[in-house]
Amino acid sequence: MYDMTLTQEEQLMIQSVREFAETVIKPAAKKADETGEFPWDVINKGVELGLHALPVPEEHGGPGLSSVMTAVIAEEMSKACAGIGTTLGATGLSCYPVVIAGNEAQKKLFFDFIMGGKMGAFCLTEPNAGSDSGSVATTAVRDGDEYVLNGSKTFITNGGVASVYTVFATVDRAKGLKGLSAFIVERDRAGVAVGKEENKMGIRASNTTDVIFENVRIPADHLLGKEGDGFKIAMLTLDKSRPSVGAQAVGICQAALDACVVYVNERKQFGKPIAANQAIQFMLADMAIQTEAARWLVRRAAYLQDAGQPFSKEAAMAKTFAGDTAMKVTTDAVQIFGGYGYSRDYPIEKLMRDAKIMQIFEGTNQIQRVVIAGQLLR
Amino acid sequence: MKIIACYKWTLDEADIRVDEGTRAILKNRAQYRISPYDRNAIECGVQLVEAQGGEVAALTVGGPEVAASLKDVLSRGATRAVWVGQAETAALDAAGTALTLAAAVKRLGEYDLIVCGEGSSDNYAQQTGPRLAELLGIPVLTYASKIELEGNILRVERKLEEGIEVVEAALPALVTVLPDINEARIPGLKQIMAAGKKPTEQYAMADLTLTAEDIRPTAQQESLLGAVTDRKRVLLKGENAVKELVSILKAEGIC
């Protein structure tokens, strides 16, 4: 049986997040989208509320929230702006490798940054290692009590705004996936540089950059787990974060649906609101069905994770379905808004641009299908 | 310093609907929340305590539904929460509320300042604060848009229709605040989690030696119906439209 009843504490948290989303995120979303400037004031307020640190355990000063709550919060934030939701969520993502594999000293090191109000970034992707994590070319060479990192990461969310990174590098390229290892790297280490910032189609409020490591020396105790644990840590991390990526997509769907319900009653053609047309009604009904279905795939995957049951396949299903649904629902929303939907003066086209990344990042929806099929056929 | 911040647990009026046929007030979709100006009152108390040290006791009176307010108010920075349990909140008028709060304040012991919202979001009668001050025999400063403390002296800017009046009073005193006074904080996740660990107390009417008779409203509400505006939907066309309009308005006694 699923008992997904929220406690009063959880309801109060959601109430706070909604208020933050409505009164702080939403008013800032348009400008951040148009300019691509990083909305530090909004992010700092979110940080004050602790919304960047959802997985940080209570004993390290964080809220240590469940996966279900993390998903609910991600949905609420992304309903207001998926770009800002991505920024806060990506710091949470950077925490997972430490939650999964960090020892006490490493947790203290990393979470002191996060609970001190700093941003984190998860550095896995490289120009030639996207879906294929085994091709990571960034190297970590042991030198006495240190590792020396060399290589370039790309498409790193929060790359330019983070104070601390979880970085994946290989200790032995010949070993492929088995050489991959995970490290904590502080931004202010000599040799760490932030490269070019992406000029993105959507989630433009978020910061996406290259991060370059050039002879970066880190203490050997910054290695998370053992040498060669990197691939396992990365996959566990992405499993854990998938429900909340799906939840972001659901937030975009809900924003589109809400906007459409208001618009179809206001917009009059042929002497009546367009809501009177069954063609419109059916579109709205389908959007609502798909949004709700996506939401419950996400919540179920999150629930399984919280319950300590296998959830990898369900998380991949949730992320895939929610991402694909966001693309479909927002495309329909643009259609319902007609010419106004295509205009940048209205907030609908932003939702469609924001939705697209949901099919791409944190494992493309094609890779998710590989994961799902792999589980079915094993 | 010791501050008492009073608050009311009210339905969010944005979700209250009126049935157009029966004019009945439909509250089934509305959720309770802390009356917005009272959030400013709590924030005012919390900011003073953050600057000067001390504690903020949040105080409310109401029926069983008020239990859910305690964690909420504690997440907003109050040190503890005190709830005077009532069989039914709606049975209280401003006089009964003030009487109950006054008895609870006396039971709470010494205090320096009481902060209330200027009015509640449901009735906005603006009576509870001044009545409470009168019952306690302390100065009341209403319409506060800015507040300063200098030793034992409370200086308040009162935002009035015609201008701003600056007044002073010695503590203990009661102030009723406007939303201009501050921006009430959004509780963070950690504050919400900490709220569950803060102390709460419940007083019964009997603890305050109040009887149902003491707080019985002097006026009884016979009914409460929503205002519905019916449109006549008369459309006038043609060159005589203006004349017709004037004659209709005359017939209605409007001009």
What does this molecule look like?
Chain A is of the alpha+beta class. Chain A folds into three domains: 8-119, Butyryl-Coa Dehydrogenase, subunit A, domain 1 (Orthogonal Bundle); 120-228, Butyryl-CoA Dehydrogenase, subunit A, domain 2; 232-377, Butyryl-CoA Dehydrogenase, subunit A, domain 3 (Up-down Bundle), CATH 1.20.140.10. Chain A is 54% helix and 16% strand. Chain A has eleven helices and ten strands. In chain A, the strands form three sheets. A four-stranded mixed β-sheet of chain A has the order 1-4-5-8. In chain A, strands 2-3-7-6 form a four-stranded antiparallel β-sheet, with helices on one face. In chain A, strands 9-10 form a two-stranded antiparallel ribbon. The longest helix of chain A is centred in the middle third of the chain and has 37 residues, at 230-266. Chain B has 255 residues and is α/β, with parallel strands linked by helices. Chain B has one domain: Rossmann fold. Helix content of chain B is 26%, strand content 27%. Chain B is built from six helices and 13 strands. The relative contact order of chain B is 0.18. Classes of the chains: A alpha+beta (378), B alpha/beta (255).
- The CATH homologous superfamily of the largest domain in chain A corresponds to Butyryl-CoA Dehydrogenase, subunit A, domain 3
Coarse structural class of chain A: alpha+beta
Helices and strands of chain B, in order, run as: EEEEEHEHEHEHEEEEHEH
The main sheet of chain B comes to: 9 strands, mixed
CATH class assignment of the largest domain in chain A: Mainly Alpha
Low-confidence stretches of chain B: none
The major sheet of chain A is characterized as: 4 strands, mixed
User: How much of the residues of chain B is beta strand, in percent?
Assistant: 25-35%
Helix content of chain A: 40-55%
Rg of chain A: 21 Å
**Secondary structural class of chain B:** alpha/beta
- Strand % of chain A is 15-25%
Radius of gyration of CA atoms of chain B, rounded to a whole number: 22 Å
The most extensive contact between chains is: A-B, 19 and 13 residues
The CATH class of chain B is Alpha Beta
Ends distance of chain A: 27 Å
What's the CATH topology label of chain B?
Rossmann fold
Tell me the overall shape of chain A. globular
For the record, the count of structural domains of chain A works out to 3
Report the count of strand segments of chain A: 10
